[in-house]
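Weekly structure sync - notes
Attendees: PM, LS, DV (DV joined late)
Agenda: review two folding runs queued last week.

Item 1: First target. Sequence and C-alpha coordinates pasted below for the record.
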Amino acid sequence: MDRKTSDSVRFAAMVGGNLKYLRLNRKVFMPQKIPAAHIGVTHQQINKYESGLNIPCSYRLVQLADFYKVTCNDLVNPSYIHQQTKGNEILNNQVEVQHGNLQS
Protein backbone atom coordinates (compact mmCIF):
# COMPACT_ATOMS: atom_id res chain seq x y z
CA MET A 1 0.00 0.00 0.00
CA ASP A 2 1.35 3.42 -0.98
CA ARG A 3 1.40 5.77 2.02
CA LYS A 4 2.15 8.85 -0.06
CA THR A 5 -1.20 10.56 -0.45
CA SER A 6 -1.47 13.94 -2.11
CA ASP A 7 -1.93 15.53 1.32
CA SER A 8 1.20 13.91 2.73
CA VAL A 9 3.21 14.93 -0.34
CA ARG A 10 2.04 18.55 0.02
CA PHE A 11 2.75 18.47 3.77
CA ALA A 12 6.27 17.11 3.23
CA ALA A 13 6.98 19.77 0.60
CA MET A 14 5.69 22.54 2.86
CA VAL A 15 7.73 21.40 5.89
CA GLY A 16 10.77 20.99 3.65
CA GLY A 17 10.32 24.47 2.24
CA ASN A 18 10.11 25.95 5.72
CA LEU A 19 13.25 24.08 6.81
CA LYS A 20 15.16 25.20 3.73
CA TYR A 21 13.98 28.79 4.22
CA LEU A 22 15.17 28.78 7.84
CA ARG A 23 18.56 27.36 6.87
CA LEU A 24 19.19 29.74 3.96
CA ASN A 25 17.55 32.93 5.22
CA ARG A 26 20.52 34.21 7.18
CA LYS A 27 23.49 36.46 6.60
CA VAL A 28 26.05 33.65 6.68
CA PHE A 29 25.60 30.57 4.50
CA MET A 30 24.76 27.43 6.48
CA PRO A 31 25.46 24.06 4.83
CA GLN A 32 23.16 21.12 5.54
CA LYS A 33 25.94 19.57 7.64
CA ILE A 34 25.34 22.07 10.46
CA PRO A 35 21.73 21.22 11.35
CA ALA A 36 22.47 17.55 10.57
CA ALA A 37 25.27 17.42 13.14
CA HIS A 38 23.13 19.22 15.70
CA ILE A 39 20.24 16.73 15.51
CA GLY A 40 22.36 13.63 14.85
CA VAL A 41 21.46 12.76 11.25
CA THR A 42 23.36 12.88 7.97
CA HIS A 43 23.33 15.85 5.63
CA GLN A 44 21.61 13.55 3.12
CA GLN A 45 18.71 13.18 5.54
CA ILE A 46 18.45 16.97 5.88
CA ASN A 47 18.41 17.14 2.08
CA LYS A 48 15.53 14.62 2.00
CA TYR A 49 13.62 16.67 4.59
CA GLU A 50 14.16 19.90 2.64
CA SER A 51 13.22 18.37 -0.70
CA GLY A 52 10.06 16.79 0.71
CA LEU A 53 11.15 13.19 0.13
CA ASN A 54 10.98 12.40 3.87
CA ILE A 55 8.98 13.92 6.69
CA PRO A 56 10.82 14.41 9.99
CA CYS A 57 9.29 12.52 12.91
CA SER A 58 7.96 14.56 15.82
CA TYR A 59 11.19 14.08 17.78
CA ARG A 60 13.25 15.49 14.88
CA LEU A 61 10.76 18.35 14.38
CA VAL A 62 11.30 19.40 17.99
CA GLN A 63 15.08 19.19 17.56
CA LEU A 64 14.95 21.22 14.34
CA ALA A 65 12.65 23.81 15.90
CA ASP A 66 15.04 24.19 18.84
CA PHE A 67 18.01 24.49 16.49
CA TYR A 68 16.37 27.21 14.36
CA LYS A 69 14.85 28.89 17.45
CA VAL A 70 11.27 28.62 16.18
CA THR A 71 8.26 26.62 17.32
CA CYS A 72 7.12 23.31 15.88
CA ASN A 73 4.01 25.16 14.75
CA ASP A 74 6.22 27.43 12.66
CA LEU A 75 7.75 24.42 10.93
CA VAL A 76 4.34 23.00 9.98
CA ASN A 77 2.70 26.35 9.17
CA PRO A 78 1.86 26.54 5.44
CA SER A 79 2.10 30.34 5.44
CA TYR A 80 5.26 30.67 7.58
CA ILE A 81 7.52 31.88 4.75
CA HIS A 82 4.90 34.37 3.58
CA GLN A 83 4.48 35.74 7.11
CA GLN A 84 8.24 36.13 7.47
CA THR A 85 8.72 37.87 4.12
CA LYS A 86 5.56 39.94 3.70
CA GLY A 87 7.39 43.03 4.97
CA ASN A 88 9.66 42.76 1.94
CA GLU A 89 6.79 43.16 -0.54
CA ILE A 90 6.73 46.53 -2.18
CA LEU A 91 2.93 46.56 -2.23
CA ASN A 92 2.82 46.48 1.56
CA ASN A 93 5.22 49.38 1.92
CA GLN A 94 3.78 52.84 1.58
CA VAL A 95 5.73 54.44 -1.22
CA GLU A 96 5.23 57.94 -2.46
CA VAL A 97 6.63 59.26 -5.66
CA GLN A 98 7.64 62.89 -5.38
CA HIS A 99 9.65 64.61 -8.04
CA GLY A 100 10.94 61.29 -9.35
CA ASN A 101 12.24 60.19 -5.93
CA LEU A 102 10.89 57.19 -4.02
CA GLN A 103 10.30 57.71 -0.32
CA SER A 104 9.08 55.08 2.09
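Item 2: Second target, run right after the first with the same settings.
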Amino acid sequence: MPRPAERGPSAPSSAASAARFARAGHRVPGAPESDVPVVARVWWRPRCGKFVDVAQIDALADSMVGEWFTLPETADRLGLSISRVRQLLRDRKLLAVQRPDGQLSVPAAFLDGNQVVRGLHGTLTLLFDCGFAEVDALRWLFTADESLPGTPIQAIAEHRGTEVNRRAQALAI
Protein backbone atom coordinates (compact mmCIF):
# COMPACT_ATOMS: atom_id res chain seq x y z
CA MET A 1 0.00 0.00 0.00
CA PRO A 2 1.46 3.39 -0.92
CA ARG A 3 2.31 5.85 1.79
CA PRO A 4 0.00 8.93 2.06
CA ALA A 5 2.59 11.18 0.39
CA GLU A 6 2.63 8.89 -2.67
CA ARG A 7 -1.15 8.79 -3.07
CA GLY A 8 -1.48 12.50 -3.73
CA PRO A 9 -4.16 14.76 -2.28
CA SER A 10 -7.51 13.18 -1.51
CA ALA A 11 -10.56 14.46 0.34
CA PRO A 12 -9.87 15.11 4.03
CA SER A 13 -11.57 12.99 6.67
CA SER A 14 -12.31 15.57 9.37
CA ALA A 15 -13.15 19.24 9.62
CA ALA A 16 -9.75 20.11 11.08
CA SER A 17 -7.90 18.21 8.37
CA ALA A 18 -10.14 19.90 5.77
CA ALA A 19 -8.88 23.28 6.95
CA ARG A 20 -5.25 22.13 6.72
CA PHE A 21 -6.01 20.60 3.31
CA ALA A 22 -7.40 23.93 2.07
CA ARG A 23 -4.50 25.95 3.50
CA ALA A 24 -2.11 23.66 1.63
CA GLY A 25 -3.69 24.89 -1.60
CA HIS A 26 -5.78 21.81 -2.40
CA ARG A 27 -9.42 22.07 -3.46
CA VAL A 28 -11.79 20.91 -0.72
CA PRO A 29 -14.94 19.23 -2.06
CA GLY A 30 -17.97 21.41 -1.30
CA ALA A 31 -15.91 24.51 -0.45
CA PRO A 32 -16.75 27.75 -2.25
CA GLU A 33 -14.89 28.47 -5.47
CA SER A 34 -12.59 31.47 -5.56
CA ASP A 35 -10.84 33.10 -8.48
CA VAL A 36 -8.45 34.90 -6.12
CA PRO A 37 -4.87 33.65 -5.89
CA VAL A 38 -4.88 31.98 -2.49
CA VAL A 39 -1.33 32.60 -1.39
CA ALA A 40 1.65 34.69 -2.30
CA ARG A 41 5.21 33.83 -1.41
CA VAL A 42 6.49 36.65 0.77
CA TRP A 43 9.96 37.13 2.25
CA TRP A 44 9.18 37.89 5.87
CA ARG A 45 12.20 38.97 7.90
CA PRO A 46 10.55 38.58 11.36
CA ARG A 47 10.05 34.87 10.60
CA CYS A 48 13.83 34.24 10.66
CA GLY A 49 14.20 35.41 7.07
CA LYS A 50 12.10 32.62 5.55
CA PHE A 51 9.51 32.56 2.84
CA VAL A 52 6.00 32.20 4.26
CA ASP A 53 2.60 31.84 2.63
CA VAL A 54 0.35 34.87 3.10
CA ALA A 55 -3.19 35.16 1.78
CA GLN A 56 -3.35 37.76 -0.98
CA ILE A 57 -6.52 39.75 -1.55
CA ASP A 58 -7.88 41.23 -4.77
CA ALA A 59 -9.06 44.82 -5.29
CA LEU A 60 -12.78 43.93 -5.05
CA ALA A 61 -12.45 42.25 -1.65
CA ASP A 62 -10.12 45.04 -0.56
CA SER A 63 -12.81 47.62 -1.30
CA MET A 64 -15.47 45.56 0.54
CA VAL A 65 -13.54 45.82 3.78
CA GLY A 66 -12.93 49.57 3.80
CA GLU A 67 -10.51 50.62 6.55
CA TRP A 68 -7.39 48.57 7.25
CA PHE A 69 -4.64 48.58 9.87
CA THR A 70 -1.09 47.43 9.24
CA LEU A 71 0.42 45.06 11.80
CA PRO A 72 2.26 47.85 13.69
CA GLU A 73 -0.96 49.93 13.79
CA THR A 74 -2.87 46.88 15.02
CA ALA A 75 -0.28 46.31 17.74
CA ASP A 76 -0.58 49.96 18.84
CA ARG A 77 -4.39 49.79 18.94
CA LEU A 78 -4.38 46.59 20.97
CA GLY A 79 -1.54 47.75 23.23
CA LEU A 80 0.48 44.64 22.37
CA SER A 81 3.87 43.96 20.88
CA ILE A 82 3.99 43.14 17.19
CA SER A 83 5.18 39.62 18.05
CA ARG A 84 2.03 39.09 20.14
CA VAL A 85 -0.11 40.26 17.19
CA ARG A 86 1.69 37.72 14.99
CA GLN A 87 0.89 35.08 17.61
CA LEU A 88 -2.80 36.05 17.40
CA LEU A 89 -2.56 35.56 13.63
CA ARG A 90 -0.90 32.14 14.02
CA ASP A 91 -3.57 31.12 16.55
CA ARG A 92 -6.23 32.32 14.08
CA LYS A 93 -7.76 34.65 16.63
CA LEU A 94 -7.21 37.43 14.11
CA LEU A 95 -6.97 37.44 10.33
CA ALA A 96 -4.55 39.42 8.17
CA VAL A 97 -4.12 39.37 4.41
CA GLN A 98 -1.69 40.91 1.98
CA ARG A 99 -3.34 43.90 0.33
CA PRO A 100 -2.75 44.87 -3.32
CA ASP A 101 -0.19 47.46 -2.17
CA GLY A 102 1.85 44.62 -0.61
CA GLN A 103 1.23 45.37 3.08
CA LEU A 104 0.04 42.72 5.50
CA SER A 105 -3.07 44.26 7.08
CA VAL A 106 -5.96 43.55 9.44
CA PRO A 107 -9.48 44.90 8.78
CA ALA A 108 -10.34 47.70 11.21
CA ALA A 109 -13.76 46.08 11.80
CA PHE A 110 -11.97 43.21 13.61
CA LEU A 111 -10.96 45.57 16.41
CA ASP A 112 -13.26 47.00 19.05
CA GLY A 113 -11.32 49.74 20.80
CA ASN A 114 -8.27 48.10 22.33
CA GLN A 115 -9.33 44.48 21.84
CA VAL A 116 -10.29 41.99 19.16
CA VAL A 117 -14.05 41.84 18.52
CA ARG A 118 -15.57 39.33 20.91
CA GLY A 119 -16.66 36.17 19.10
CA LEU A 120 -14.48 36.65 16.02
CA HIS A 121 -12.17 33.77 16.91
CA GLY A 122 -15.02 31.25 17.07
CA THR A 123 -16.47 32.37 13.75
CA LEU A 124 -13.06 32.23 12.06
CA THR A 125 -12.56 28.71 13.40
CA LEU A 126 -15.93 27.63 11.99
CA LEU A 127 -15.16 29.13 8.59
CA PHE A 128 -11.71 27.52 8.38
CA ASP A 129 -13.16 24.18 9.47
CA CYS A 130 -15.68 24.53 6.61
CA GLY A 131 -12.74 24.72 4.21
CA PHE A 132 -12.65 28.47 3.63
CA ALA A 133 -9.34 30.08 2.75
CA GLU A 134 -8.41 33.35 4.45
CA VAL A 135 -9.54 35.49 1.52
CA ASP A 136 -12.84 33.62 1.20
CA ALA A 137 -13.51 33.91 4.95
CA LEU A 138 -12.82 37.64 4.73
CA ARG A 139 -15.21 38.03 1.79
CA TRP A 140 -17.92 36.09 3.63
CA LEU A 141 -17.55 38.22 6.77
CA PHE A 142 -17.94 41.44 4.75
CA THR A 143 -20.70 40.33 2.35
CA ALA A 144 -24.13 41.74 3.21
CA ASP A 145 -26.79 39.24 4.27
CA GLU A 146 -30.44 40.39 4.23
CA SER A 147 -31.44 37.93 6.93
CA LEU A 148 -28.98 39.32 9.51
CA PRO A 149 -29.35 42.40 8.45
CA GLY A 150 -25.97 43.81 7.47
CA THR A 151 -22.73 41.91 7.23
CA PRO A 152 -21.67 39.03 9.47
CA ILE A 153 -18.83 41.10 10.98
CA GLN A 154 -21.30 43.87 11.90
CA ALA A 155 -23.52 41.29 13.59
CA ILE A 156 -20.55 39.87 15.53
CA ALA A 157 -19.57 43.38 16.64
CA GLU A 158 -23.18 43.96 17.80
CA HIS A 159 -23.02 40.77 19.92
CA ARG A 160 -25.25 38.78 17.56
CA GLY A 161 -22.56 36.18 16.92
CA THR A 162 -24.79 33.18 17.62
CA GLU A 163 -26.81 33.81 14.48
CA VAL A 164 -23.64 34.35 12.44
CA ASN A 165 -22.20 31.07 13.74
CA ARG A 166 -25.42 29.26 12.79
CA ARG A 167 -24.99 30.48 9.24
CA ALA A 168 -21.31 29.50 9.24
CA GLN A 169 -22.21 26.02 10.49
CA ALA A 170 -24.81 25.70 7.74
CA LEU A 171 -22.05 26.23 5.19
CA ALA A 172 -20.39 23.02 6.36
CA ILE A 173 -23.49 20.93 5.69
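Discussion on item 2: Residues 161-172 form the longest helix (12 residues).
Action: LS to circulate a short write-up before next sync.
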